[in-house]
Amino acid sequence: MSNSKTVLIVRTRLPREDPQIPDATEYSYRWAETVKQHFEENGWQVLDLAVDDAVRAKVEDCLQPPESYVFLFYGHGWDKMSGQDGIGVIDCANLHL
Question: Measured between alpha carbons, how far is 87 from 12 in angstroms, rounded to an integer?
């Protein structure tokens, strides 16, 4: 396990259907930016998978051993944590990571 303090932030942002009404992911995306800055200011290394990088393959690559991270997800999901492309970045098939 690594001795460094690393946080993995995964944050989606859906396109607006109506330019006057922000999607809920817009709020969580902005909140995640504040959280990211807080971690950086406190000496953490931040891996930020935002928007088009918030996809399953990139999340799984980051979660492979031997590294150890704090994992934060900001987005949507029901039976999975949905990535930017709608495919689950975390679900029952890769929960062990």
Answer: 12
